[in-house]
Amino acid sequence: MAVRDKGEAGLLTRDEEKLKEPKDYAVILLNDDYTTRDFVVEVLMLIFHKSPEEATRIMLNVHRKGQEMVGVYTWDIAITKADQVHAIAREYDYPLRCVVEEA
């Protein structure tokens, strides 16, 4: 913060800095023909902390629609979660993918 002298009896004031809110990014899970439904539900519960019911609903939407938004986060968190999905899918030899888009 910049401090400047107003010239009035040594009175100092602070220039207000305008802080921008961070942008939001959506993590979108993509459907594929190989990853099992149970694995997708487990990933949603483990990485995105979804309840079993919500994870199942999201998994079914991904299956029916081809994709579904899983959550909205700041950039760093969204990228980290996407990387975690890709890492665990790779570990279990599934092609499960997700993308991060500006919300």
Can you describe what's shown?
- It is a single chain.
- With 103 residues, the chain is of the alpha+beta class.
- Helices cover 42% and strands 24% of the residues.
- It contains 3 helices and 5 strands, in the order βββααβαβ.
- Strands 4-3-5 form a 3-stranded antiparallel beta sheet. Strands 1-2 form a two-stranded antiparallel sheet.
- A hairpin with a 6-residue loop joins β1 and β2.
- α1 (37-48) packs across α2.
- The longest helix is centred in the C-terminal third of the chain and has 17 residues, at 75-91.
Indicate the proportion of strand residues: 15-25%
Q: Point out poorly predicted stretches.
A: none
Overall geometric form:
elongated
Q: Largest sheet, order of strands side by side?
A: 4-3-5
Series of H and E elements: EEEHHEHE
> C-alpha Rg, in Å?
22 Å
* Number of distinct beta strands: 5
Major sheet, described briefly?
3 strands, antiparallel
The amount of helix comes to 40-55%
Task: Outline the secondary-structure elements.
Blueprint: E1 3-5, E2 12-14, E3 25-30, H1 37-48, H2 52-65, E4 67-73, H3 75-91, E5 97-102
Antiparallel strand pairs: 1-2, 3-4, 3-5
Helix pairs in contact: 1-2
